[in-house]
Amino acid sequence: MLVLLAEIYKELDYIDKRILLLLDKLLIRYEYVPLSVIEGSINVPPRELALRLGRLSEMKLIKRSLTSRTGYRLTFLGLDCLALDDLVRDGVIAYLGSSIGMGKESEVYIAKSSKEALLAVKFYRIGKASFQKVSRVRQYLTNERSWLIRSKLAAEREYSVLSELPRYTENVPRAFGWSRHAVVMSFINGVELYRCRELRKPTEVLYGIFNALRAAFIHLGIVHSDLSEYNVVVSIVDEVPYIIDWPQYVYRDNPLHLEYLKRDVLYVIKFFKRRYGVSIDVGKALRFVKGEVNEVIG
User: Among 80, 226, 245, 264, which one carries the catalytic annotation?
Assistant: First the structure.
C-alpha cells in the first residue's frame, strides 16, 4: 500500500476504533450494517457520526453500500487496524514496518517485538481472486460467505499449528500471537524454494521438509495437504527449510488424509529430482513421514 498501515492506524482514536469494532462484531449478521444500527450503538451526535463514517470511508477502512438503504461494512484495511490494535495492546509487537511480501491470499509485514526481535506479521486477505483455488484445498472455508470471516478462520488455523508444531521440529516458523486475520511469527531471512536455482546441500533441505511433515503427522495428527515449492522458505545463511501456509491442513481422521500425504511427499520429491537431481524412494519417504521408519536418506 502507498500509505504504511502503521501510519493509518495512528490516525484512529477511541471512537473510530469503536465503529470498526462494531462492524467487525456484526460481520456474521450483516453484509452492510444498517446506519440505524450504527447510530443506536455508537453514542455520538448524528452529525459527528456522519463525519466519522465519511472519514473512515475516505481512509478505505470501511465501505458504504451503494443501495438506497445506507449501510457500512468493514474492509480488509479496517480489519488490519483492529488486529494491529490487539497485537500492540497485548505486547506481541511494538513496531510495524512495511510490507515485505504479497501473495494471492495474504500480505506479510515486518515487525519488531519490545525486545527488538524481528518478527513477521501475516495478514490473510482471502478474496475472489484466490477463492477458486483456495476453496479446492481449504474446504473449511466453503460455508462462509464473508471474505473477512474466511480470512479469520485461515489465520486461526495457521496459528493453531505454528504455536504447537515448533515444539517438535525446527522446520516451521514459530507463532507468537494471533488476532482476527493476522498471525505474528518468527521472521525468516530466506527465499521461497522455487526461487532457489541451486542449493549447497539439497538432500539435507529435503530431509528438513520431511522432518516437518513427520512431526506434524506424528505429534499433531495433521497433513499439510498443499505442499509445493511455493510454501517452503529456505534460510539464506544455513539453508534450513521452513514449511509455511498451514491453514488447509487435514486431520488423520479425514478419509483422504493418506492421499493428501502421498501427494505432498510425491510433489516435493519430484521437484527436488527435477531441480537438484536428488533421488528419493517415495515409499520409504512416506514410511518415514508416518513414523514407521527412522531414516529416509542414506
Answer: 226
